[in-house]
Design brief:
Number of domains: 1
Order of helices and strands: HHH
Number of helices: 3
Strand content: under 5%
Structural class: mainly alpha
Oligomer: single chain
Largest sheet: none
Length: about 90
């Protein structure tokens, strides 16, 4: 399996990934991809979200990122005056 992709695996981990791939009739890449995606789901919600699967609000809430800017106005996201010039150079 070992191809240098900039992500070195020690010999034991490489052996275990290959064994799991054989046991599940998948590729080592699939095993690592799935493990990484599952890790992300269980650690602060860090994962790609399919369109329509989850709202941005739900994702930010799960990541505890709502209200994380201290000292900002309470109506920052809704008051038009804060949007003046937004997106302009």
């Amino acid at each position: 399996m070992h191809r240098d992709h900039g992500l070195p695996l020690d010999a034991d981990l490489e052996r275990r990934v290959e064994a799991f791939a054989r046991a599940t009739n998948s590729t080592p890449s699939d095993v690592l991809r799935t493990a990484f995606e599952e890790y992300g789901v269980n650690h602060n919600g860090c994962r790609e979200v399919a369109v329509g699967e989850e709202s941005a609000y739900a994702a930010f809430t799960r990541a505890d990122a709502i209200g994380c800017v201290k000292g900002s106005p309470s109506d920052l996201s809704t008051h038009p005056k804060y949007m003046e010039g937004f997106g302009r150079d």
